[in-house]
Automatic annotation (TrEMBL):
The active site is at Y146, Y156. It comes from Methylovirgula ligni. This is Enoyl-[acyl-carrier-protein] reductase [NADH]. Pathway: Lipid metabolism; fatty acid biosynthesis. GO terms for biological process: fatty acid biosynthetic process.
Length: 264
């Protein structure tokens, strides 16, 4: 839908490469008319993010590691200098120790629990707090979650706990910011092969299982997530806040294995 984000300015966090969900969302938002700014995490990703930003005529507003609040402040200061205000933020950030994205949840260490929740959940709140000040004409905040927040999934472990907390924070932030016409939503995406996903144990099996059992009998793409995101970022969704929208080929409605599915 060209034009639904015309005149809107948005900050995108979490692009790592051209397979990132953040990149799918950025492409769709740009195609819908938005002006964008990217952050990157560290120098090695800067090299990947700069050419992507260039492709979309987007600004690059600096390094952001969400464990370092001063880097978040620096990014928002740069955005304020660049635009003076902000219409939307896309948060595609998550991390957990790879060694604990396999096996049993009960083995999670306090240190990895804290770090996973800080990066994958609290960071969205830290960003919302800063975005609120720049969203003088209302706005839309969007984060990414996964079905492992709602149901047990193999190997997802502490990340499932973090996503459950993230989904709850979407509701609390929506209530806090609604009076300023700032909407807060999440997309619960089906499995997609990205850098972050490759850290999850048996990821290929999970992807295949979804393909065989989802109502649409396939997985979703970053472009499909991107176009649904463009809707949630745009005035077309102005009556929606606090929502978790599943963009997962329908997998979340399924109650049992498709008997016709082949063995994996
Ligand atoms: P990705 O690896 O492309 O993106 C993850 C991003 O998180 C990277 O850009 C990385 O730099 C950033 N990040 C990690 N730690 C950070 C920190 N301390 N500070 C700043 N940034 C940090 O993978 P993706 O799959 O596109 O992940 C984006 C979001 O989508 C994540 O929240 C993920 O949980 C979610 N998600 C992914 C899937 C999937 O199957 N790929 C499904 C549902 C939800």
């Amino acid at each position: 839908a060209p034009g639904i984000l015309a005149g809107k300015r948005g900050l995108v966090l979490g692009a790592a490469n051209n397979r990132s969900i953040a990149w799918g969302i950025a492409k769709a938002a740009r195609a819908a008319g938005a002006e964008l700014a990217f952050t990157y995490q560290g120098e090695s990703l800067e090299k990947r993010v700069r050419p992507l930003a260039e492709e979309l005529n987007a600004a690059v507003v600096g390094h952001c590691d969400v464990t370092d609040e001063s880097s978040i402040d620096a990014v928002f200061a740069t955005v304020e200098k660049l635009w003076g205000r902000l219409d939307f933020v896309v948060h595609c950030v998550a991390f957990s120790d790879k060694d604990q994205l396999t096996g049993r949840y009960v083995e999670t260490t306090a240190e990895n629990f804290t770090n996973t929740l800080l990066i994958s959940c609290y960071s969205f709140t830290a960003i919302a707090k800063r975005a609120e000040k720049l969203m003088t004409d209302g706005g839309s905040l969007l984060t990414l979650t996964y079905y492992g927040a709602e149901k047990w999934m193999p190997h997802y472990n502490v990340m499932g706990v973090a996503k459950a907390a993230l989904e709850a924070s979407v509701r609390y932030l929506a209530a806090d910011l609604g009076q300023k016409n700032i909407r807060v939503n999440a997309i619960s995406a089906g499995p997609i092969k990205t850098l972050a996903a490759s850290g999850i144990g048996d990821f290929r099996y999970i992807l295949k299982w979804n393909e065989y059992n989802a109502p649409l009998r396939r997985s979703v793409t970053i472009d499909e997530v991107g176009e649904s995101a463009a809707f949630l970022l745009s005035p077309l969704s102005r009556g929606i806040t606090g929502e978790i929208l599943h963009v997962d080929a329908g997998y979340h409605i399924v109650g049992m294995k498709n008997p016709a599915a082949p063995d994996i």
